[in-house]
Amino acid sequence: MNHFRFMQLAPATAFVFPGQGGQHVGMAKELCDQYPAARLALEEADDLLGVSISTLCFAGPEEALTDTVNAQPAILAASIAALRSLESELESQSDARPDAESPRFVAGHSFGEYTALVAAGAITYADGLRLVRERGRLMKEAGAQNPGKMAAILGMDGDK
């Protein structure tokens, strides 16, 4: 007997955060132009880290943005900006859509797990920014001491 056939599950929203490599010049710019909550997220990162993450996100240069020391806090900040924009939009629609809710589930691909920890409230945004900045610094240092390469193989059939 299927005990779950009568169970009605309410729809739930999940947010999946990107890993490193998804950064690009111009990321979060439109969100920050439209949503004060997004702009505040980037300003918090700028103030906390003492470097203009927002300028790196909006204008680059690309070489600086892709440097792991900058890419990791930039991706986290842009992702939290997106989350806060969504939450702001849902809050503004709460009278018209009482069923609208913030994401109930969060996950992250690779590096995105750090953003998911912030989104879930397991660590603060400030601690997350400090953590990923240090992670990026250590990764860069380790790469300089032990140079190597990484490759991804795309498009292969599963049976080959």
Provide a brief overview of the structure.
The protein has helices at 29-34, 36-49, 53-59, 62-66, 68-92, 112-120, 125-145, and strands at residues 14-17, 105-108. It has 160 residues and is mainly alpha-helical.
Low-confidence stretches: 1-7
Provide a count of the helices: 7
Class derived from helix and strand content:
mainly alpha
Rg computed from alpha carbons, rounded to a whole number of angstroms: 19 Å
Integer tally of domains: 1
User: Any idea what the CATH superfamily is called?
Assistant: Malonyl-Coenzyme A Acyl Carrier Protein, domain 2
Distance between the termini: 40 Å
Number of strands: 2
Q: In one word, what is the shape?
A: globular
CATH class: Alpha Beta
Keywords summarizing the entry:
about 160 residues; 2 strands; about 55% helix; disordered N terminus; about 5% strand; two-stranded parallel ribbon
